[in-house]
Design goal:
With 115 residues, the protein is an all-alpha fold. It has seven helices and no strands. Helix 4 packs parallel to helix 6.
Length: 115
Amino acid sequence: MRITSRHASRRLDRLHQAQRLPRASDIQSHSPHASAAVNHDAPPSPPIALTPSVACSPDTPIEVLWHIAQHAPELRRWLIANPRADAALLEFISQAGGPGVKRALAVLLESMEEE
């Protein structure tokens, strides 16, 4: 099948309608955040290496902590030691389980009783 410019144009229109492809007019706005537009020519930033120190760090964004909880069961025990871990995250971890989670939760609860 030979792709014509009309066919390609219709395909692009369908992608725009399905909101899979941003329109140039949407990216280049006159808002103060226009400089924050995505630079499609720059390489993407490297992914965060998920390690115990990332899981424990209070500087790690909560979104990353949730990602670790959902996708890296071997690191869940380290999330319990993170001061940013809220009740919802700790509840998820306790329900999901994983290596060392039960012991880490026991240590956390013991430390809270001592205070």
